[in-house]
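Is this the right way to post structure tokens for a design question? Let me know if I should format differently. Anyway, here goes:
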């Protein structure tokens, strides 16, 4: 160990005794009444010492005012170097800064917010480039041009969109736009996998709701299929009373709102009554005239027979 190193670890006597100079400098830099007691010193090098004072300012618990003093070689006058506010061992510090792209969480975006994507986003890959390059089987493609030259044929040069015989509707750009493929970037396989893992974690087979479900979403009538490769594992729930309504759910997910979980039976139809007690049978108050054993006769005939 060199002599210079030994001297740097031992505080200079005159600099160590300049507590009043350091305090005055700290009180001048700070607000009145926020510089506390002397909290020690540390040697920064040859004839350079930093004095620490407690900070009593609200919101800076554990911080210290640091006043660094120094003196020139063979000089007896100590001068001020700088005054700063530094955190102590038990200071309350703000969390480590994290870029916004790493702090963002699902649901943080609100109306009017814009979320830019990185040009090298691993979730995306180049889609349709926008150039009207002819397909390999086109008459003006490079492959076909070589065949034409070999067969000594004549073909008009240029992309199909610029040919008079080729309609604009038949250009690659027009067809791509009609099919909905004219996008600069599309989801990569990595992007699909991360989305699938996120959806599987939220509405997958391992969730408590799915574990207690009577059946999976694969057999539910409320499942709306999705297109593409994700159709083999996911769909969209369309049951307004289900916990995943409007969400992408795994086909292995399930809940109590399954369409076939509890089908309400039709109300039973009563059997026809043996005795219809609701029907009214009319009964006359007097018997009919022809209901007796003696035929009805006029009064004159009854008089001749001697009937009274």
């Amino acid at each position: 160990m060199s002599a210079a190193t030994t001297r740097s670890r031992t505080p200079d006597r005159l600099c160590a005794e300049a507590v009043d100079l350091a305090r005055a400098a700290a009180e001048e830099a700070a607000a009145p009444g926020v510089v506390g007691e002397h909290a020690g010193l540390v040697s920064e090098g040859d004839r350079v010492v930093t004095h620490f004072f407690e900070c009593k300012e609200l919101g800076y618990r554990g911080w210290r005012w640091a006043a660094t003093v120094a003196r020139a070689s063979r000089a007896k006058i100590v001068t001020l170097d700088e005054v700063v506010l530094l955190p102590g061992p038990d200071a309350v510090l703000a969390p480590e800064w994290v870029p916004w792209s790493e702090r963002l969480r699902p649901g943080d975006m609100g109306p009017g917010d814009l979320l830019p994507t990185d040009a090298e986003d691993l979730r995306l890959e180049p889609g349709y480039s926008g150039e009207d390059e002819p397909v390999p089987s086109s008459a003006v493609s490079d492959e076909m041009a070589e065949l034409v030259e070999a067969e000594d044929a004549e073909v008009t040069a240029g992309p199909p969109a610029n040919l008079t015989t080729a309609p604009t509707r038949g250009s690659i750009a027009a067809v791509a736009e009609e099919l909905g493929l004219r996008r600069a970037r599309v989801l990569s396989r990595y992007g699909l996998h991360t989305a699938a893992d996120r959806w599987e974690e939220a509405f997958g087979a391992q969730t408590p709701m799915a574990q207690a479900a009577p059946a999976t979403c694969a057999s539910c009538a409320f499942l709306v299929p999705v297109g593409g490769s994700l159709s083999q594992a996911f769909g969209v729930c369309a049951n307004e009373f289900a916990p995943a309504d409007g969400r992408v759910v795994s086909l292995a997910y399930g809940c109590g709102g399954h369409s076939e979980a509890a089908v309400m039976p039709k109300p039973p139809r009563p059997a026809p009554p043996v005795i219809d007690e609701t029907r009214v049978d009319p009964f006359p108050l007097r018997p009919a005239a022809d209901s007796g054993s003696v035929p009805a006769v006029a009064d004159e005939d009854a008089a001749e027979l001697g009937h009274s």
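Format looks fine. Someone answered above. Worth noting: The first strand starts at residue 35 and ends at 45. Residues 189-202 form the longest helix (14 residues).
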